[in-house]
Amino acid sequence: MPARLLIEGGVPLKGEVAASAAKNAALPALAAALLTPEPVTLTNVPDLGDIRTMLRLLQTLGAGVTRRGREATVTVDQVASDRAPYELVSTMRASVLVLGPLVARHGSARVALPGGCAIGVRPIDQHLKGLAALGAEIAIENGYVVARARRLVGAHIVTDLVTVTGTENLMMAAALAEGTTVIENAACEPEVGDLGALLTAMGARLHGVGTARIEIEGVRALHGAVHRIVPDRIEAGTLLVAGAITCGDVRVTDMVPAHVAAVLTKLAECGVEIEVGPSWVRARAGDRPRPADIVTSPFPGFPTDMQAQLMTLLGLADGQSKLTETIFENRYMHVAELARMGARISTEGPVAIVRGVTAYQGAPVMASDLRASAALVLAGVAGRGRTEVSRIYHLDRGYERLEDKLGALGARIERSP
Ligand code: EPU
Description:
Layout: E1 4-8, E2 14-18, H1 23-32, E3 40-43, H2 49-60, E4 64-68, E5 71-75, E6 83-84, H3 86-89, H4 99-106, E7 108-112, H5 125-133, E8 137-141, E9 144-148, E10 156-158, H6 164-175, E11 180-184, H7 190-201, E12 205-207, E13 213-217, E14 225-228, H8 233-245, E15 249-253, H9 261-269, E16 273-276, E17 281-284, E18 293-295, H10 307-314, E19 320-324, H11 334-340, E20 344-348, E21 351-355, E22 364-366, H12 370-382, E23 386-390, H13 393-398, H14 402-408, E24 412-416
Parallel strand pairs: 2-15, 3-14, 6-7, 10-11, 18-19, 22-23
Antiparallel strand pairs: 1-23, 1-24, 3-5, 4-5, 7-9, 8-9, 11-13, 12-13, 15-17, 16-17, 19-21, 20-21
Helix pairs in contact: 1-2, 1-7, 4-6, 5-6, 6-7, 8-10, 8-12, 10-12
Bound molecules: uridine-diphosphate-2(N-acetylglucosaminyl) butyric acid.
Uridine-diphosphate-2(N-acetylglucosaminyl) butyric acid binds near residues 123, 125, 371 and 398.
């Protein structure tokens, strides 16, 4: 039987825990190594399923990879293959991040179309339109995106919607294009900022990263660099909710408080006492949370990647809350599982109405996607009795041994077998 987490809930979590580095910053940073023949060394790389998948993908494209603890060095002397196979892309959509760098450096890319996934349809049309604007010829052949260009040429791109990996793909592609590119309606997520910092260290000329208008002056070649990955704001937020939902007292260190501002605002609205230091946040709660309404939106709005965790907290609130998910059309898979633990949540399209209950009861539940798994673990540590979360390979894609971190805070949680 695949690994499960066994949780005996009901212990208030207390203590200090460090955030790991962000999966969603490490993935584009690894893909960026395709842009140069020189080594790119990333420090503070988290040990996660998705990171291993990306390293495997880079190796199939010709990368040499060395990993020493949390340091990973990727060297792509030459692109040996331009093909990102369906086997890898279908297990991890972020594989599409190799598309921009491959076309820019190698002049061609064949990347399997990812298809839908548990949380939504998730098209990549904006990536493709942007690359086409930069002069790439794009075709769909046998389930693959085939992109070709002799050398990309700078362009003015306005994306139809805010896309995180789309912005990242276009930034990487434009870094080696001839002339200047402007990306309007760009994503402002901290992970985009982190990629900008790495590209700058590699010799790229970028302005406005972190704003909705990014300007990129293309250069002929990029060089190697050493870069430290930004802390994971979603992991940090999840750990803070763990403190709040168990009426505990948790301090998360090694994080950037400004990156979780929207989450802290909501936690405070729920009655959680928040204390903020330069690189840490402390969350304390003594009582049932108060209800709150949440609408997900691109950064600096409330992140969709924290929606499931906050819903789990609000499920115990003294009153009714309303959540509106605006980023993904199917991101309420955790609702049915939370209901098995006693939650009273109804959904209609993008809106979820959460009527707070006084406690969750432990139950066997099944993870459906990464953040939904985290929500079930939170319900388990807060709940009465024993919860068994199965299919935790979803959790392991993006959380580094979450059970160890929660265990260090006093949670009774173990991995089985
Ligand atoms: N979209 C399009 N066309 C595109 C691109 C996106 O219609 O070409 C739509 C999507 O379907 C979605 C919305 O635009 O409805 C936003 O999607 P976005 O492209 O921003 O998502 P992403 O880049 O695929 C990243 C994170 C996700 C996170 C979202 C939103 C990475 C590797 N993944 O995905 O992280 O939820 O941004 O913030 O950075 C997770 O870590 O659990 C996770 C799903």
